[in-house]
Design goal:
The structure holds two protein chains of two kinds. Chain A is α/β, with parallel strands linked by helices. Chain A has a single domain (11-214), classed as Rossmann fold. Helix content of chain A is 29%, strand content 24%. The relative contact order of chain A is 0.21. Chain B folds into two domains: 1-256, no CATH class; 267-415, no CATH class. Chain B has helices at 14-35, 40-66, 72-78, 82-92, 94-109, 119-145, 148-156, 158-170, 180-207, 209-228, 234-249, 272-288, 291-307, 312-325, 327-331, 341-347, 350-362, 365-379, 384-407, 410-414, and strands at residues 2-4, 7-8. In chain B, β1 (2-4) and β2 form a beta hairpin. Chain B is globular and about 60 Å long. Classes of the chains: A alpha/beta, B mainly alpha.
């Protein structure tokens, strides 16, 4: 899976409050720290704030108060610098319909300026692992829900991220694919990646996560 | 939408292209017809009025055509840098600004004696219009890209809460405090554009055309430098503005006041067969933005121009633009947020969605009729012929846009 880059920075959430309008608080004054290699499962009922929390970490929403640091970087001040380290599986995907999964991964690597001579093998390897077979060369618009999810997951992992932010990444996957993705998650945690994942499935917890964050946050 | 190196999220369909090309051709033809036969001085005055109107248009339209950006998740996958994000932001407005540029060129160059007659003067006139317009557009783009932080503070902070309470008590006006920076932007951009036009005209009076042209160069540089000044932090500004408007139009959408939602029975002018379709769309549109208030401000704006002793051609052009701008609200019903594909497919046939949309637009016809007839009676600046033509264009384009929006997914469903 390419070069092994060891993550050595913490992700610190410092006194963060988020409300969508005054008085409509999602969470108030939360402080926490995630160390390299932390695997955290976000759990809770619908509307309890899991997606909002992940949106904060992925710079898709901004805190009402407080800051979030990755190392010395305040992530909402320097999104481009911060997102170099982040692999994302968003809650709603917006993949290009007229590219194949292989082309998508090539585009991600080239746009991030991390394309090298090993990249083709790397793309082949991750798509092999996820069992996205000959369809990897078809346009994403023709994919099933599960195949699209695999393309999304591959795009998040292909950059060897130091932080993985995953919102329901296993939704729509069959049992075999779920096991394959869990393998990837375990490998990532071994590489010291900070893993933050929201999931409703109780089974997702097994063997990967050392911590569980229960939402709504108190 | 083109992202980078020819990659698209969704290929443009014939309907998407028609939505831009047809109104552009229509406007172009109309403006050539209006400008044709007028001498250079009259066309200069027409361009000034156009710039007046376009300043008002760009003062409020930008957030609606910029955010939330459907490509933002893909930008994050590729981690697009700030400079490119700023460029994509401008490219998103291209269908609108390119039409404006064409109209300005058409007005400047549509000389009945042929394009070669006084070519240099026509070219300078076009250059004046283009530079001034580019300046005010870039200034508007600068202000709206920079708006996320302030808007969020107003929306989520305590001062916003106080404003919401006060406005609800005093004016019974359901304003979301997060929209206050946008309202301020609208006023500032309009003022800069309009005062700029007046200042340019005064310079023309004192020193001639060269001075007014030079002023437009200044306007362009002002807008350009302002926008360039944001590029260093464009990633933060883009994500913050996008996040705010995503929440403003989505999670926290709606005025959150005691205002009663629209009831089906209030739609007295819509025939029963299409009432439910129109109501479903209008209910959501009205929650997203108070269209009636924008229309009222638009009428006020047209009356201010009429009060300046604008000529018949100029007033006809202003009414036409204003009539066509009404369809901007109809475009809201083309968004996935208001009319997702599955919803349209499940609930009715495209033909009925088209008719439902058309009836929505009919609601603005009566106020427009009253306003135009009053203007004709008071100022005599427009004729019955103008009035009929504006209504005809309004209804035809309304039907056309409704049809394009409603039938654009036919090919998608066929798969």
């Amino acid at each position: 899976m390419g070069t092994l880059i060891m993550n050595d920075k913490n992700l610190k959430v410092e006194n963060v409050t988020k409300q969508y309008r005054a008085g409509k608080v999602v969470f108030r004054d939360i402080t926490m720290e995630f160390m390299p290699g932390d695997a955290v499962l976000l759990r809770g009922p619908n509307g309890s704030g899991k997606t909002t929390f992940l949106k904060l970490i992925s710079v898709n929403t901004f805190p009402t108060e407080g800051i979030i640091r990755y190392g010395d970087l305040i992530i909402h001040d320097k999104p481009y610098q911060y997102l170099k380290n982040v692999g994302l599986v968003h809650d709603e995907e917006a993949l290009p319909q007229h590219m194949s999964a292989v082309e998508l991964l090539e585009w991600v690597l080239r746009t991030r300026d991390i394309w090298d001579e090993k990249s083709n093998d790397k793309i082949g390897s991750i798509l092999d692992h996820l069992e996205l077979d000959e369809s990897r060369f078809d346009e994403i618009g023709t994919y099933s829900t599960g195949m699209r999810k695999k393309a999304q997951i591959a795009a998040a992992f292909i950059i060897n991220p130091s932080i993985l932010v995953l919102d329901e990444p296993l939704r729509g996957l069959d049992q075999t694919s779920t096991v394959k993705v869990k393998d990837l998650l375990i490998q990532a945690v071994k590489r010291n990646t900070i893993l933050l994942m929201a999931s409703h499935a109780e089974a997702d917890k097994n063997g990967i996560f050392q911590k569980v964050m229960n939402f709504p946050l108190k | 939408m083109k992202i980078n190196d020819g990659i698209t999220i969704r290929k443009k369909t014939w309907a998407d292209r028609l939505l831009v090309i047809l109104p552009a051709l229509l406007l172009l033809t109309l403006f050539v017809a209006i400008a044709h036969g007028n001498d250079l001085d009259s066309r200069l005055v027409m361009i000034r009025y156009l710039l007046f109107a376009l300043s008002g248009l760009f003062a409020f339209i930008l957030p609606y055509i910029s955010f939330p950006d459907p490509g933002s998740r893909l930008y994050q996958l590729g981690n697009i840098n700030g400079k490119k994000l700023a460029r994509f932001y401008l490219v998103r407005h291209r269908p609108v600004w390119s039409i404006c540029l064409l109209i300005l060129i058409a007005t400047a160059m549509a000389d009945s004696r042929g394009i070669t007659e006084e070519f240099t003067s026509q070219l300078l006139l076009a250059l004046y219009g283009l530079l001034f317009f580019a300046g005010i557009y870039l200034y508007a783009a600068y202000r709206y890209l920079n708006i996320g932080k302030d808007s969020q503070e107003w929306q989520e902070g305590l001062r916003g809460l106080h404003v919401r309470k006060r406005l609800a008590e005093i004016a019974k006006y359901p304003v979301d405090p997060g929209s206050i920076p946008s309202l301020i932007n609208s006023v500032v951009i309009s003022l800069v554009g309009m005062l700029g036009v007046v200042a340019g005209a005064m310079l023309y009076g004192f020193f001639g055309q060269g001075a007014e042209l030079l002023f437009s160069v200044g306007m362009f540089l002002f807008g350009f430098i302002k926008f360039r000044s944001l590029e260093r932090n464009a990633d933060r500004l883009f994500y913050q503005a996008n996040a705010f408007f995503n929440e403003f139009f989505g999670v926290s959408a709606g005025p959150g006041s005691d205002r009663e939602p629209l009831k089906v029975d209030q739609l007295w002018w819509i025939p029963g067969r299409w009432k439910a379709n129109s109501w479903g769309l209008m209910l959501q549109m009205d929650r997203k933005l108070p269209a009636g208030r924008y229309i009222a401000v638009g009428h006020l704006f047209v009356w201010v121009i009429a009060y300046q002793d604008a000529g018949r051609s100029a007033m006809f052009a202003v009414w036409l633009i204003f009539a066509l701008l009404h369809h901007g609200f109809l475009m809201l019903t083309a968004t996935q947020a208001i009319a997702p594909k599955w919803w349209l497919r499940t609930l009715d046939k495209p033909i009925h969605w088209m008719i439902g949309r058309f009836w929505i637009q009919v609601r603005w016809l009566l106020p427009m009729m009253v306003s135009m007839m009053l203007m004709k009676w008071l100022f005599g600046v427009i004729t019955w012929e103008d009035l009929n033509l504006v209504f005809a264009v309004y209804l035809l384009t309304g039907a056309l846009i409704s049809a394009i929006i409603s039938f654009r997914y036919e090919r998608y469903w066929a798969h």
